[in-house]
Design goal:
The chain is an alpha+beta fold and about 130 residues long. About 45% of the residues lie in helices and about 25% in strands. It has four helices and three strands. Strand 2 and strand 3 form a beta hairpin. Helix 1 packs across helix 3 and helix 2 runs antiparallel to helix 3.
Amino acid sequence: MEGIDTGDEEHVLRSILRAVDDVRFVLTRGFSAEADAAVRESCSELAASRKTREWNRHGVIKDPLDDSLFSVDAEEFLSAVHEQRATVRATVLPMFIHAPELQLPAVGRRAVIILSPAAVSEARGAPLTKG
């Protein structure tokens, strides 16, 4: 993530993923077709892993999985997107979530992970968001 040391980047992303209720990915223009496909695949894999972790936490999976299985998700995601020379930015925003026990919406947190080609990010200068 821009402005964060590479060693801390994984820790920050892992912390964000544990603290939010939802994750959205935004890919900016400028990726080659191959890089775009690879980055989208990485996003899909991270989203699928988050969904599996959520099911595991809520007892949907009959034989619970060890949480350490998910510990490398952030590292694998960052490695794959950096291989495509993508810059990663993230922010956490409030969002409404369904709370059936309250019979009204509750406020949750959504992470928005913005991925852009390194060349585009360098041309723009400052990060889009800090958060």
